[in-house]
Write a structure and sequence with these properties.
heterodimer, A: seven-stranded mixed sheet, four-stranded antiparallel sheet, 11 strands, 49% strand, B: mainly beta, six-stranded mixed sheet, 0% helix
């Protein structure tokens, strides 16, 4: 069984530029999470979906961040007008049902100059 | 609020020594917290090490153990004899009921010397 895949693995931007991150969860996993992990911090939840529906996006900076999962499979996280404070690793995780645990992808490391 | 506090690293121990990484939690909005330890080995993604969903129970994996203590709100990670291959970053985490939302601690870097 393939794991959670993410792309790109690395991104370097100037402030003000936009960037998109892509996540392909494990097949059959209905729940998908996006986390932001600043250096020397733990992962912090940004948003999560069950199928195509957003369940919780309360921690997503809505003015510049957006996330979609239109068919309930792959997902895209987008940052408009990136800031230096967005420098972090962005992790995607997926899960099947309430008995399972989260499986994490390798992450995308973002550096905003 | 809900939060997790764990031993600040880095923690350095020699092979075959014992290890404890402290973790305490605050779950003010979660009626039945689930507790986890995740680990990230060098060059690998974050993965679950062990979990306990019932207070008073102990979880174990790969020689590591952690007991869910509701009275002291703690979930310390212990191992009797570490190996060099245990070198990694360890994260204590708190989940709501069914663990749809998980709150992570800052992580503890463990270095095991040969």
């Amino acid at each position: 069984e393939a794991g959670v895949t993410q792309s790109p693995r690395y991104a370097v931007l100037q402030e003000g530029q936009a960037v998109s991150f892509w996540c392909d969860p494990i097949s059959g996993h209905d729940t998908l999470y996006w986390y932001q992990q600043p250096r020397d911090q733990g992962p912090q939840l940004l948003v999560y979906f069950r199928d195509e529906a957003v369940i919780d996006n309360s921690q997503l900076p809505s003015d510049r961040f957006s996330a979609v999962r239109p068919k309930g499979t792959n997902s895209t996280l987008k940052i408009q007008s990136a800031k230096q404070g967005d420098t972090a690793t962005y992790l995607c995780a997926s899960r099947r049902g309430i008995q399972d645990t989260q499986y994490f992808g390798p992450g995308t490391r973002l550096l905003v100059l | 609020g809900d939060s997790v506090t764990q031993t600040e690293g880095p923690v350095t121990v020699s092979e075959s020594e014992s290890l404890i990484i402290n973790c305490t939690y605050s779950a003010t909005s979660i009626a039945y917290p689930n507790l986890f330890w995740y680990v990230r080995y060098p060059g690998e993604g974050l993965q679950l090490l062990l979990k306990v969903i019932t207070a008073g129970q102990k979880g174990s994996s790969r020689g590591f153990e952690a007991t869910y203590n509701k009275e002291t709100t703690s979930f310390h990670l212990q191992k009797a004899s570490v190996q060099e291959s245990d070198s990694a970053v360890y994260y204590c985490a708190l989940g709501d009921t069914n663990a749809y939302k998980v709150i992570f601690g800052k992580g503890t870097h463990l270095h095991v010397l040969p």
